[in-house]
């Protein structure tokens, strides 16, 4: 059998096994679904106060503030799942020696990373559904009923994962521990989401912030999600008063290409530095933290 094909098969099998096993760990389940449940609870709690409120700039529409916020939160869940979960996986499994064992096998790193991509992608999609399905049932106006929205999801979700997951792999390769991955990653992600129009139209932000937000994939993902779930009339509050699908695909594609070029180099460099002595030193430090 071709070694590359064999590595791909191992990656698919490993990813599926890890995906199933994650349902046996309460900690893994909370890591995946915690954000989804928290945001769902927050929106449900705010429903009596905001369900009849119009979004700024679209007064007179039949959509509430909460309904318009849902697609942006879905985009944020995709980004945080892809980046944060990947970074935490890599740091944790580098610390406990899993990565070193994968490195020792023929094409082990290919199988390891392929399996991780499959597992994280599946859990990220599931966490989005945990938030999205109840939101569609509860908040009026979702989805728009336009079949073109499904087409937008079919290209924007995979492209969004490709654009953001390599960033998580890079951070996981550079950061020393799972605690560092959480501490360093969460706050910048929340800031980027805040300025990217996830919770309110970006046109209320200063012009310089609007320009900065368009550099990051979160803005383009959030806008693509809104175009998939909301009526075309909502494009009037977007920059350029349109959904700009071509620009969104271009920016997300650029992030994906850059990440797929840089991440393998960083991962190989990190893997070369792994050794039994280094893993044992990390275990000793981890035990000291627990003690």
Overview of the structural elements:
This protein has 291 residues and is mainly alpha-helical. It has one domain. Helix content is 76%, strand content 0%. It has helices at residues 3-21, 26-50, 65-95, 98-104, 108-138, 148-174, 178-195, 207-213, 217-229, 245-272, 276-290. α3 packs across α9 (217-229). The radius of gyration is 20 Å and the shape is globular. The chain starts with a helix and ends with a helix. The mean pLDDT is 82. It is found in: Cell membrane; Membrane. InterPro entries: ABC2_TM, ABC2_TM_bact-type, ABC_2_transport, Nod_factor_ABC_transporter. This is Transport permease protein. It is a multi-pass membrane protein.
Low-confidence stretches: none
Provide the residue-averaged pLDDT. 82
The value of Rg in angstroms is: 20 Å
Give a count of the beta strands, DSSP E runs of length 2 or more. Answer: 0
How far apart the termini lie comes to: 48 Å
How many domains is the backbone divided into? 1
Order of helices and strands: HHHHHHHHHHH
Structural class call reads mainly alpha
The share of residues in helices is: over 70%
Membrane topology: Multi-pass membrane protein
Subcellular location: Cell membrane; Membrane
Protein name: Transport permease protein
Family: Belongs to the ABC-2 integral membrane protein family.
């Amino acid at each position: 059998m071709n070694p590359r094909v064999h590595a791909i098969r191992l990656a698919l099998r490993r990813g599926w096994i890890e995906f199933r096993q994650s349902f046996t760990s309460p900690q893994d389940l909370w890591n995946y679904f915690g954000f989804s449940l928290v945001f769902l609870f927050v929106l449900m709690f705010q429903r009596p106060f905001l369900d009849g409120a119009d979004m700024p700039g679209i007064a007179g529409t039949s959509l509430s503030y909460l309904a318009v916020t849902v697609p942006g939160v879905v985009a944020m869940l995709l980004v945080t799942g892809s980046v944060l979960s990947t970074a935490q996986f890599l740091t944790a499994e580098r610390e406990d020696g899993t990565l070193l064992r994968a490195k020792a096998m023929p094409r082990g790193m290919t199988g390891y990373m392929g399996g991780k991509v499959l597992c994280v992608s599946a859990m990220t999609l599931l966490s989005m559904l945990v938030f999205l399905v109840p939101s569609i049932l509860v908040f009026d106006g979702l989805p728009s009923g336009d079949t073109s929205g499904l087409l937008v999801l079919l290209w924007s979700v995979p492209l969004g994962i490709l654009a953001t997951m390599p960033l998580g792999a890079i951070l996981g390769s550079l950061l020393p521990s799972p605690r560092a991955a959480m501490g360093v990653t969460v706050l910048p992600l929340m800031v980027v989401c805040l300025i990217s129009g996830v919770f309110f139209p970006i046109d209320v932000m200063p012009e310089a912030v609007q320009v900065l937000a368009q550099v990051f994939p979160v803005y383009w993902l959030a806008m693509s999600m809104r175009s998939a779930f909301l009526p075309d009339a909502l494009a009037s509050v977007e920059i350029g008063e349109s959904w700009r699908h071509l620009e969104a695909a271009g920016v997300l594609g650029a992030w994906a290409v850059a990440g797929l070029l840089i991440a393998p180099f960083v991962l190989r460099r990190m893997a070369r530095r792994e050794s039994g002595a280094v893993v044992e030193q990390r275990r000793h430090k981890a035990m000291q933290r627990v003690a």
